[in-house]
Design brief:
It comes from Eiseniibacteriota bacterium. Pfam families: PAP2 (PF01569). InterPro entries: PAP2/HPO, PAP2/HPO_sf. The protein contains 7 helices and no strands. The chain is mainly alpha-helical. It has 2 domains: about 35 residues; about 150 residues, no CATH class. The protein is globular, with a radius of gyration of 21 Å. The N and C termini lie far apart (about 65 Å).
Length: about 200
Amino acid sequence: MTVRTGAWILGAGLLTGALSGIQSLDEQVRDSVQARRQAGMDRVMQGISDAARQPTVLSLLLGAAVFGGPGGLQVARSAVLALIPTNLAVEGLKRTVNRTRPDGEHERSNASFPSSHAANAAALAWILAKRWPRASALFWIAAAAVAWSRIYLNRHFLSDVLVGVIIGVASSWVMSRWAEAQAARTAMSGGNRDGSRRV
């Protein structure tokens, strides 16, 4: 056996062990949460989950763009810019991993891993917190409530939600940096056709 082959076998073994541990934790969390569900809380969690659906989010962004003045328009643009890569990553992973949902539903186009609700909520929380930093705690609490509702309603495992949050935050951060770089380039080339900086 070559060193390279041995390294591949070791890596595969470590990955298998890690995935097994994650699956075990996911199942423990699911069983614990589902054992404590209450009818009254079910309605609250369903309402939180429904409020984070794409049509509702897009309607809110449209309202911000139309009625929020220049600041509202900028927030809507930033949010759309962040949500596009977020959803591309989520949908690509859903079809690739094809994980069965904790409630037993199995459909490749609507697979469990990762959670699109959690990803979109985290992406929006990042954008909104950057625009209104004093209210950042409220935005992150709302995103956490959306993510938790997906676990509570038995639609996602813990790891689905955590990876969704990471995707949402990473996409928002990358796109924010890109937008800032574009704005800086535009400012540097300031109004002169030859690209020289205006003094």
